[in-house]
Design goal:
mainly alpha, 17 helices, 8 strands
Length: 498
């Protein structure tokens, strides 16, 4: 409580207590009676207007990029381009209104950055369509279908924000999420190759009219499960164990979650021939384990298991050997197994520092340029500078996700936000590392940038969960005036649990 004659703590300049008028000289009138004090707590800005302005700016960038592509292919200016830009702005304005209604204190940078990435992906897919003729290589539709998937993904994003009122509800359903995630991961392995296999990987569920990749959703569900289990067992993981060589080693029975994640990853690598999902799941789990326990010994054990599994997989599975040998020397078979990697390297070399310009490259020579190798297409036409700008956009999302993890008050929210941000970072590293020959190719898509309905849907669900956690982290605890009251006159009060 404030003493008589003192200014309230936190009051802005010029603020005065009620009932204490100023005298002619600017001082306070003396009074022997206690005066009620008011602590002025200004409402925190929700930054929603800034979010909308950034969305408008992103729309302008995308519209200009589309005009440059059209001019590069001598398509001329058409009124339907204005319609596309307007539809894009209306769609993400709808997402903005949903955030304003359901998560008004969420981070204002996340949605505009993701919208810009999504729009740039649409521009590049449209550019590839103009060059090769609507994905003639595999018969799939291009930018039109991607825009339709964007519409569906934003609607799903809005539903998740509306239905998930508190991210802590996910912790209570952690085991359900884990079971559903495992089932989705296993289904493609059990289906016949005609319904699940594409380009050698059994990761699809082919339905009449469209296909889905369930592993995209499994990564989110399993991450929720990992975070929920680690929060509930954190004391056990951090207190029990032996001290050996400067490290606190866990007990053998406490290694069960780590061994389970390792077995799942190896099984996915073996039966579904999907190196990317296997690496992503295991690396994400290791990050979450380290954040929960802060023990380096868990990372050491996890990396040793990963090394052992990788060596065993190289000698046991032929598809792993092909990937590794292609990575080590793609020019050994430039017209066969190494063709994709060779064309990707030529794309980066052609782009150089500043690129050939939007619409002036030849990304159609790279197989799967609109999906797995869209980074190579950006590297050719935007060069190192443009590609660095795209990667900076991803870095903003990852850093803001980590800041959300630091700011949120509950342990589950911290692990969940950090895990989601880390998953994005790991996936980006795997994709960019694969197309630049830093690591073997894995077949993962670039979030929000590559063509693919499953990837868009899953990553917009990830964004919705991250925004929900961000809202909980940034919302003010209270914006009500606080008055000093004699202790005898105070009554009971219900305190909101956060």
């Amino acid at each position: 409580m404030s003493r008589a004659g003192d200014d309230p703590v936190g009051a802005p300049p010029g603020a005065q207590r009620q009932g204490a008028p100023s005298d002619e000289k600017g001082g306070r009138a003396s009074s022997t009676e206690p005066q009620p004090a008011v602590t002025v707590i200004p409402a925190l800005p929700d930054r929603r207007n800034a979010e909308f302005l950034l969305l408008c700016f992103a729309t302008v960038i995308i519209a200009v990029a589309m005009l440059i592509v059209e001019a590069g292919h001598e398509q001329g200016l058409r009124w339907d381009l204005v319609g596309y830009g307007t539809a894009f702005l209306v769609l993400f304005s709808f997402a903005h209104l949903v955030i304003r209604r359901s998560a008004r204190y969420a981070d204002p940078l996340l949605l505009p950055v993701v919208a810009l990435l999504n729009g740039l992906g649409l521009v590049m897919i449209h550019r590839i369509d103009l060059g090769v003729g609507a994905d003639a290589a595999d018969g799939r539709p291009g930018a039109g279908a991607q825009m339709l998937w964007t519409l569906v993904a934003v609607i799903v994003f809005a539903l998740v924000l509306e239905l998930l009122k508190d991210h802590r509800l996910l912790a209570g359903n952690g085991y359900i999420c884990g079971v559903v995630g495992l089932v989705l991961l296993v289904i493609p392995a059990l289906l016949p190759a005609s319904l699940s296999e594409r380009q050698g990987a059994k990761i699809w569920i082919r339905l009449p009219g469209f296909s889905i990749q369930p592993a995209e959703f499994s990564k989110i569900l399993l991450l929720i499960f990992f975070a929920a289990v680690l929060v509930s067992k954190r004391r056990l993981f951090t207190s029990a164990g032996k001290h050996v060589l400067g490290m606190n080693l866990p007990r053998p029975r406490d290694l069960a979650p780590l061994l389970a994640a390792w077995v799942i990853s190896v099984a996915v690598m073996a039966f579904e021939k999907d190196l990317g999902t296997s690496l992503l799941l295991y690396a994400s789990f290791l990050v979450v384990v380290y954040l929960a326990t802060r023990r380096f010994s868990w990372m050491v054990i996890g990396l040793l298991l990963f090394a052992a599994g990788s060596v065993a997989a190289y000698f046991l599975f032929s598809h792993v050997r092909v990937r590794v040998q292609t990575w080590m020397d793609p020019f050994a078979d430039p017209e066969g197994a190494g063709y994709q990697m060779v064309q990707s390297l030529f794309s980066f070399a052609t782009g150089g520092i500043f690129g050939t310009g939007l619409g002036n490259g030849q990304p159609g020579y790279v197989p799967a340029a609109s999906t797995d190798f869209i980074i190579a297409a950006f590297g050719e036409e935007l060069g190192l500078v443009g590609l660095a700008g795209v990667l900076i956009l991803y870095t903003i999302v990852i850093v803001r996700g980590m800041r959300t993890a630091i700011a949120v008050r509950d342990s589950f929210g911290k692990l969940l936000a950090a895990g989601l941000a880390a998953t994005l970072g790991i996936q980006l590293f795997i994709v960019v590392g694969g197309v630049t020959k830093l690591i073997p190719l894995t077949g993962l898509t670039t979030p929000w940038l590559s063509y693919g309905g499953s990837s868009l849907l899953a990553n917009y669900v990830l964004l919705a969960i991250l925004l929900r956690v961000s809202h909980a982290a940034r919302r003010p605890l209270s914006t009500q005036p606080q008055r000093t009251t004699p202790i005898g006159d105070t009554g009971t009060a219900v305190i909101e649990r956060v």
